[in-house]
Amino acid sequence: MPGLPPGFRARLLRPLAGRAPAPPAPAAALHDVSAVTAVLLALVGIGALIHEPVLIPPLAASAALVHSVPALPLAQPRSLVAGHLLCASVGYAALHALGSSPWVATLAAGVSLAVITLARTPHSPAVATTVVVVLRSPAPLHFLPLLVGSTCLLVLAGWAASRARRTSPRYPVYWW
Description:
By secondary structure, this protein is mainly alpha-helical.
């Protein structure tokens, strides 16, 4: 903004900046993106091999939490693994009791959110797992091991990525 007094632009833009910390350095961001992409590609491959629905939407959101905000309670292993399992269980219960429809998926998602809150395993992306279960009706004997393996792989990838760079925040803050 040419012609403005010195410091005026900074004072003008300061309220827009908020209190968010500075974004990571480009190298750190690229490292996290490549780690998340590698994990998701592996999960797609595994899902394709065993002919189960790809869990990309909920797991991509989970990976984003683990790699972007590793200190949040939502990103911790207890919330990630147990949250997805609890939500899948609610999805299967709703599917068994009420069938597969968008209405049932919506109801089950609300119940899932309540269950993970009461269980102290908050992980909002896990609610999407409920929706996947209700709408896609995957075979539990194949789907649940894939889900457990996928969430554990995300935790291990977050752990490894946090140790790959000395300046990275440590993940997890707590295991269970």
